Amino acid sequence: MDKNTVTGFILIALVLIGFSWYSQPSKEELEAMARQDSIAAVEQQKQAEAEQAKAAEAAASPTIADSSALFFSQLSGEGQRITLQNNKVKVNLNSKGAVVEDAEIIGYKSRRREGDVVILGKEEASMKLTLPLKQENLCLTDLTFNVIEQTDNSVTFAVNQEGKQLQVRYSLRPDAYMLDMDITSQGLEGMTMPGQSALLLGWKATVLQQEKGADFENRYSSLTYKRQDKSVKHLSETSNETKDIEEPLEWIAFKNQFFSAVLIAEKPMTKATLATTQPSGDNAAGLLKEYEAAAQIDFEASKPTKLQLYLGPNDFHILKDHSKMTAYGTDADLDELVYLGWWIFRFINRWSILYIFDWLKHAGLPMGLVLFLLTVIVKVAVWPTQKKSYMSSAKMRVLKPKLDELSKQYPNPDQAMQKQQAMMQLYSQYGVSPMGGCLPMLIQAPIWIALFNFIPNAIDLRGESFLWADDLSAYDDLIRWSTDLPLIGNHLSIFCVLFSATNLINTWISMRQQQNQFTGEQAQQMKMMQWMMYLMPLMFFFVFNGYSSGLSYYYFVSGLLSIITMWYLRWSTDDKKLLAGLEAYHEQHKNDPKKVSGLQARLEALQKMQQEQAKRR
Known about the structure:
Blueprint: H1 3-23, H2 27-60, E1 81-85, E2 89-94, E3 99-109, E4 116-119, E5 125-132, E6 137-139, E7 146-150, E8 154-161, E9 164-172, E10 178-186, E11 198-208, H3 214-219, E12 222-227, E13 232-234, E14 241-245, E15 249-255, E16 259-277, E17 287-298, E18 305-313, H4 316-323, H5 343-362, H6 367-381, H7 383-398, H8 400-409, H9 416-429, H10 438-454, E19 479-485, E20 489-492, H11 494-515, H12 520-544, H13 549-572, H14 575-589, H15 598-616
Helix pairs in contact: 5-6, 5-10, 6-13, 7-10, 8-9, 9-15, 11-12, 11-13
């Protein structure tokens, strides 16, 4: 850098410094600027405080309804709580929306909280009805209705505006769980949307746990619905499910194990969407599931729209009687809310078990004794099949020495077909059927399964104590602890232990009988299989430990009676006389033409095929 350049930079710096010093404000000017800044800060603070006060005033002041809205004068205000009651149910309604807030089912005590069972609780359920109009959607829950008529079991809500009126009337039927709901209107003709003359239903509810065992109760709780002129169906009990229903619906039920809220429409509901959700997270305790239903209900401005709510127990006879109170009569099939199994099991329960149970119940007997006598009657009914099954096994037992001798004639594995054919021929000669013991057992199985469906759904067992069980509809937990253990939970059901023990003994008896029926390789295979069979009682214990004590008690008594029956049959059966009878049959029929059974004919055909293949080789 040369001398001239350095001199130029120095002169520029001096000029800038001099200009800055010359242009700085005086002391008086600095004081004036400070005063102006203070005034501006004060003004900004005052403006902010004014805006905050204005916002607070706006938040505190009530919202002014849009004067152009239909029934605008009823869009604000507090609701009035109205109670309807008979000797069956107590229903609480609110004039804000003219809705049902909750209902208490009189005489059925909650197992989880004090007082009667509450269904459709105020905090857990809501029903929203919306009427689509040309200018707006009229939501009934936004309106504060006036009470224009009230008695002990009926109330009429109404809103009025310039010749237009909307009424909602509730009427609780005497000595019943049925609440009738009529919606009528005046002056709304021509205001509805073309082609959309329907009320839009939005119904939600969180189902609270009512019983002691949440898992068991949840297994029998479901969102259930009845299709028009078709069968009753339900969504999944154990998983989340959403379903769009194409068919019109007669009713929709929010059902738990022993109680239901059922919405019934005079004209079938259409375009329904149903959903069930399993609660999860920290707030899921005490909750079973969440139900949601959306549908359209036919609405005509010139005619009343009739709805009904059944708010009561899942009692077969009560539901049957209330079906007659609906627009569909007995075809409403409300009794199918009591699940009695698939059609064959339902038939057995409906036309036999239910009648026996009612007969014993009406005799005034304790429920523990009712279940005991029911089990005895069922055992007596299946006695002929059980005896026939045992005698078939006994015949094969006394013929075992002959089967052993026959097995020695076919020692090679490649002679299995010949040995099997010879054994079938021997059975035929002595009049013994290897399948004779299986068919009677198959006849008993539907009854066993039918009672598996009947007992958990019998509301008569709810709250009934017997021996150490305080509630036959839930597990007995005389032995319990504070921490949940894997597979077993926090209790030990004594009835379940007794049931598993009798099941183990019966399995042992059955295995001994089957060992006497098989020879050779079949006997060896049975020895391997019996260990798997012995594991079944253990599996039953882990499954039934959380089931109702009434069901475990029934299976215990049934198993105990089976042990006694088998002991009696074994004691009363003389093997020598039985063998003598078989020998007499053999002598009497040894000259008869041989009749080849279907199974034996197939075995012979297979044997011939094997022989032909051997010759070709």
